[in-house]
């Protein structure tokens, strides 16, 4: 097996709290094992622009508590082309880099896998970093716990004012293809209903349950809508309900990008540290085209190909059913 000497680390796609603890772990594990480490700025764009710098132990001091990513991130269209990939490859080779850790979501892994198939002499390991918690091979992705806690804090505040005014709130949370945040926040905040991309929204059923809530003397109601819900935007849903549910003052709140920021939770700091440490150890063990993940509190490796093919988030029906019963 060819010995690894120099690796690069990048963050790509939507940022997620926990990326910084992960970068710190990658850098320090690599240095501990005698490897050199380059930090790539702005994801794949930095590979194309040759925007990299050598990192040392002090480059990652005091970043465990920081949201965002010190390496910056981007969604890079040129990296999807053969030309862009070739430039990136040449830049990496010119620097003597033979291993790459990519931290991001499914878009990031799609790019990593294509690149690695084209240029197999650079070994690639993926770390699941997205607030959406929608990657096969890891029960949790970096940032999901922090984002969910951020959502819970916001919804608790909305509940105070909703209750004071006897109002019905529709609250949109992130999750383009994933209802993971919506479901966890729904259970944690006692939402009256949640609408998810994984489940066809039955507006009629929603109307019936909201009317039942009024009949049962609920003073306020919260409906959480994941942004990817197939029925359309949160405003359309609120309008459809407004026509049928009378005597309820209806308001809409979109939580938006605030869900992506903030200091990572204890869970995400530890997860980021474990995954970053595991990613470098995987490279040292000669692994390639794999993702490090957490399953039953153990670090496991999954082929990037499999992680992407099985990408579809599976709705946890049992949790959904429990939420519905507990919110009566
Ligand atoms: O992938 C994470 C995510 O937060 C999605 O839930 C959301 O749709 C998307 O990023 C929005 O990201 P941006 O506005 O940065 O493109």
From TrEMBL:
Cofactor names: Mg(2+)
GO cellular component: 6-phosphofructokinase complex
Enzyme class name: transferase
Activity control mechanisms: Allosterically activated by ADP and other diphosphonucleosides, and allosterically inhibited by phosphoenolpyruvate.
Compartment(s) where it occurs, according to its Swiss-Prot or TrEMBL record: Cytoplasm
GO biological process: canonical glycolysis; fructose 1,6-bisphosphate metabolic process; fructose 6-phosphate metabolic process
Residues given in the record as ADP binding sites: 24-28, 159, 190-192, 218-220
Pathway: Carbohydrate degradation; glycolysis; D-glyceraldehyde 3-phosphate and glycerone phosphate from D-glucose: step 3/4
Gene Ontology molecular function: 6-phosphofructokinase activity; AMP binding; ATP binding; fructose-6-phosphate binding; identical protein binding; metal ion binding; monosaccharide binding
Residues annotated as binding substrate: 130-132, 167, 174-176, 227, 251, 257-260
Residues binding ATP, per UniProt: 14, 75-76, 105-108
Active-site residues, Swiss-Prot/TrEMBL: 132 (proton acceptor)
Gene3D superfamilies the UniProt entry points to: 3.40.50.450, Phosphofructokinase domain
Domain Phosphofructokinase: 6-283
UniProt: Mg(2+) binding residues: 106
Function text: Catalyzes the phosphorylation of D-fructose 6-phosphate to fructose 1,6-bisphosphate by ATP, the first committing step of glycolysis.
UniProt cross-references to HAMAP family, sorted A to Z: Phosphofructokinase_I_B1 (MF_00339)
Oligomer and partners: Homotetramer.
Protein name in UniProt: ATP-dependent 6-phosphofructokinase
Annotated organism of origin: Mucilaginibacter limnophilus
Gene: pfkA
């Amino acid at each position: 097996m060819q010995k690894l000497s120099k690796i690069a680390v990048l963050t790509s796609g939507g940022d997620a709290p926990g990326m910084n603890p992960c970068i710190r772990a990658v850098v320090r594990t690599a240095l501990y094992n005698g490897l050199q480490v380059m930090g790539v700025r702005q994801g794949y764009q930095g590979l194309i622009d040759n925007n990299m710098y050598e990192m040392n132990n002090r480059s990652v001091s005091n970043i465990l508590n920081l949201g965002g990513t010190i390496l910056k991130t981007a969604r890079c269209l040129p990296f999807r082309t053969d030309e862009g990939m070739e430039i990136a490859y040449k830049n990496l080779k010119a620097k003597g880099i033979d291993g790459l850790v990519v931290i991001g979501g499914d878009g990031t892994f799609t790019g990593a896998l294509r690149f690695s198939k084209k240029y197999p002499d650079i070994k690639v390991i993926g770390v699941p970093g997205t607030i959406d918690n929608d990657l096969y091979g890891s029960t949790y992705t970096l940032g999901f716990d922090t984002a969910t806690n951020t959502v819970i804090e916001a919804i608790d505040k909305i509940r105070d004012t909703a209750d004071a005014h006897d109002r019905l709130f529709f609250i949109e949370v992130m999750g383009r293809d994933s209802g993971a945040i919506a479901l966890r926040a729904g259970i944690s905040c006692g939402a009256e209903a949640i609408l998810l991309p994984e489940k066809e929204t039955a507006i009629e059923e929603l109307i019936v349950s909201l009317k039942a809530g009024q009949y049962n003397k609920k003073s306020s109601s919260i409906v959480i809508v994941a942004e990817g819900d197939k029925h359309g935007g949160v405003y359309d849903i609120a309008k459809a309900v407004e026509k049928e549910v009378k005597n309820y003052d209806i308001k809409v709140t979109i939580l938006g990008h605030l869900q992506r920021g903030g200091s990572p939770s204890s869970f995400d700091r530890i997860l980021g540290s474990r995954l970053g440490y595991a990613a470098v150890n995987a490279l040292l063990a000669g692994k390639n085209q794999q993702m490090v993940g957490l399953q039953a509190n153990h670090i496991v490796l999954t082929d990037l190909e499999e992680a992407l093919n099985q990408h579809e988030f599976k709705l946890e029906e049992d949790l959904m059913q429990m939420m519905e019963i507990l919110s009566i």
